[in-house]
């Protein structure tokens, strides 16, 4: 991290808010594309375009050879598998559900981290953490509305996204001590492309609408841009200062959902999303050294 002055911190916060805007834009672009394209194809394009962008940027670095070396190849593959799975589930959910609803459910990821960090990272799970997790998951139930006529089966995929993304965050934390973020970004794009690119010949249909080409470029561009801004943000300000601003992702999701799709969140999404966010913020402030919020590790 660079300096810790107020100016540097404000720049870091601005970069963080911009980063989560990029992550929300990935989801908005994917939702737009699901109207005419297979979610699997969108996932493949998302990783392929991002990988090309990251590879070009890293190729200009003098230390490119060092950045391509990973000390934990197994963890890099596991992390990428989790992220590809979460991305696929999220994009399918976005095909059927409003952007804000999917985002609210997937923001339960820090609650999953709070549960699995104990056995995987050897962290003590106190009663405050347990209560916060239970309250947070009650918010997920409010948003997804199981047993109510308003529930769509795709909400379950958003829940799976949150669960898998929780594992992804823990693995990312394990990697942080061994590989720089640029290396992790490179292998995320590489593994994601290798896993999904074989589907391209079977699913590809040349788009005829310019808006579709813009959507394809956007889903990959914002994927690379969001993670890059995240790295820059953490070089300007402490993670503990930046973490609460990751929840601006929810506001961006509501704004983009309204501007692009004309969706406004219903009262259950607002109430449940507020409960999930409050639980995550509680964990953040009361167990700050241990809990990683969404956005600090990236997004699908």
In short:
With 300 residues, the protein is an all-alpha fold. The protein has helices at residues 6-33, 39-59, 64-67, 73-96, 99-106, 109-121, 127-144, 154-176, 181-196, 200-203, 210-236, 239-242, 248-261, 267-286. It has a domain at 37-209 and 263-286.
List the helices and strands and how they pair.
Layout: H1 6-33, H2 39-59, H3 64-67, H4 73-96, H5 99-106, H6 109-121, H7 127-144, H8 154-176, H9 181-196, H10 200-203, H11 210-236, H12 239-242, H13 248-261, H14 267-286
Helix pairs in contact: 1-4, 1-11, 1-13, 2-4, 2-9, 2-11, 4-8, 4-9, 5-8, 5-13, 5-14, 6-7, 6-8, 7-14
Describe the structure.
It is a single chain. The protein has 300 residues and is mainly alpha-helical. The chain has a domain of 197 residues. It contains 14 helices and no strands. α1 runs parallel beside α13 and α7 runs antiparallel to α14. It starts with 5 loop residues before the first helix and ends in a 14-residue tail after the last helix.
Cα separation of the termini: 25 Å
Radius of gyration, in Å, reads 18 Å
Order of helices and strands: HHHHHHHHHHHHHH
Mean pLDDT: 87
Strand content: under 5%
Q: Tally the beta strands.
A: 0
**How would you sum up the global shape?**
globular
Helix content range? over 70%
Largest sheet: none
Please state the structural category. mainly alpha
Tally of individual helices: 14
Low-confidence stretches: none
